[in-house]
Amino acid sequence: MSKTFFQDLMIPHKDEVLVIPVRGINNIYNISTLARAIDESELVKSKELKQMYLDLKELGVDYKYFFKLLMISYLNMDKE
Asked: What is the rounded CA–CA span in Å between residue 30 and residue 48?
């Protein structure tokens, strides 16, 4: 899996935005910015999790929804 996995995965949605609640405040983020952030953080190292996203995309499931859940968790976790 490449170091730009999520950036590559979310290319079809690069011009879209997601509304993500961060500590109770809704924020608007560009999907390509979020994908770059999660790739650069190297938080998701599990090949199995990345494969799940590929499987969801292949099955025609709304993988963007699962990406949003991942980003909600990432942006709301304590960075300390």
From this structure: 26
Q: What is the pLDDT of residues 7-61, one digit of tens each?
A: 999 999 999 999 999 999 999 999 999 999 999 988 888 899 999 999 999 999 9
d(CA 56, CA 79) in angstroms, rounded, equals 29
The answer to whether the beta carbons of residues 74 and 36 sit under 8 Å apart is no
Residue indicated by tokens 């190292």: 45
What are 17's strand-pairing partners? 30
- CA 79/CA 64 separation, integer angstroms: 24
Coil, helix or strand at residue 16: coil
> Alpha-carbon distance 26 to 49, whole Å?
26
- pTM equals 0.85
Q: Reduce the DSSP state of residue 24 to 3 states and report it.
A: coil
CB 71 within 8 A of CB 19: no
